[in-house]
Design a protein that fits this description.
Shape: globular
Number of domains: 3
CATH class of the largest domain: Alpha Beta
Largest sheet: 7 strands, mixed
Helix content: 25-40%
Radius of gyration: 27 Å
Number of helices: 14
CATH architecture of the largest domain: 3-Layer(bba) Sandwich
CATH superfamily of the largest domain: FAD/NAD(P)-binding domain
Number of strands: 28
Structural class: alpha/beta
Length: 560
Amino acid sequence: MEPRKISEALSVSPQIAIADVAEIKRLGFRSVICNRPDGEGADQPSFDEIKAEAEAAGLATRYIPIVAGKVRDEDAADFGRALDELPKPVFGYCRTGTRSATLWSLSQASILDTSEILRATKSAGYDMAGVVRRIVNGGKTPTDLADATYDIVIVGGGAAGIAVASSLKTRRSDLEIALIDPADIHYYQPGWTMVGGGIFDASTTAKTMGSLIPKGVTWIKSAVAAFEPGDDAVILDGCRVVKYKRLIVCPGLKLDWHKVDGLVDTLGRNGVTSNYRYDLAPYTWELVRGMREGKAVFTQPPMPIKCAGAPQKAMYLSADHWRRQGVLDQMDIGFYNAGGVLFGVKDYVPALESYVERYGAKLNFFHNLVAIDGPAKKAWFDVIEPEKEVRRISTDFDMIHVCPPQTAPDFIRVSPLADAGGWIDVDQSSLRHKTHTNIWSLGDVMNAPNAKTAAAARMQAPVVAANLIADIEGKSPVAQYDGYGSCPLTVERGKIVLAEFGYGGALKPSFPTWLIDGTKPSRLAWLLKEKLLPPIYWKAMLRGKEWLASPEKVSASRKV
């Protein structure tokens, strides 16, 4: 017997024996549902035998036999009613537990989000990919006909999605491409640090999605519910089916605000802010301008995260403002980092440490924010140092800038495209899916060991476009991604440490060192960030103009 918990109300298991009933009782279950028809296996006890033993132990029972592979809509409805009526928690079983898990999934389809259902069943060890369309359709059997079919479907209309759509159209204008994204507004997220520092106005970082989608690309304004790579299909909310010849997945990542207890309840109030959200970045600047003394806390969660330098950029720009206002010596600044280093590429650390010292900031490594009480102005951290017991500490604050924990989106984590960590599983060079050869991924959602930045997406888009076109033409991958990412570290107003690096922390400077030495603070790098990068983003990257982003060709010695 292997009870696997799916919800508080239900655990499921492969076939049980009569002797297992006593253990089921001991574990606290109050009811048993059998979903395996009698006589299916030679060593299978009948339901009547199980029922007699269960009722003798004071357990309620229900028999809903299901022929393997033939779960009807009516069966799911019966299971849902039984789950409602029977005393809980309920123990369900069949030959492997799959039929019981399937019945639960379909019975909950009109109650729970699809991602919740898939996450619950996956954690119990059951893959519901085969019935995902039915789940999305409220538990009912949907039609197998596609609502639309395209040469290429792109999931996600952020920096990566629009850039790769434009790069594809630049190469092959005849391609029928659909881009799926429910958002009305597209954001230039790298600009939010500058909004929080009082340099950019928030409105300059937002444009309508419709104004950016390339001409000739169909915009499907909907959310994706699930993937069926075996049928070359994407399932949308409402159970619409979009089929593709080739698929590109780039929906970004999820900011998991709820993972920090109390955070959602106080964001934007009580001195709690974050430059990771469009509407909160102006509040960061409001707090910084208003502070003349007190304690300012800046946090960074465990990796991976979007733009790993952003949490400390907020600290540097804030401290620089207080320095310019002559109140820096009245400020107590603390940087609480879940990791063990200031920055992951050692070449840039000396310059950053000099600014930490200049601003009198205290570095607290291995400190992960776990809870916050806004009205009380208090935050709690788990200190997880190597080879030491985890301990919890607290600190008060007058202002706290929070970088939220980050994960792959829910619908990605539970999909058949994800690796064990929940990220899209790609070859780190070609960016092609390791299993499904007509699928590519780029941007924050894929699992290549690179920095998750817009600059990385700018370099990835031409690689994916070139390799996908090569695939259409029957060729092997022609371009390779070297892990390039860039993080312009705004260490003060008017100076930036321009970090540019690839896989393994290898330095990848775009300019000669006599022009911009990325390991040192530079005014020219600031000019690049403030004046040049926004128009490059809007007018080049998102328009398929690959300035300083031409894809690197696959070398003869490199097998992709």
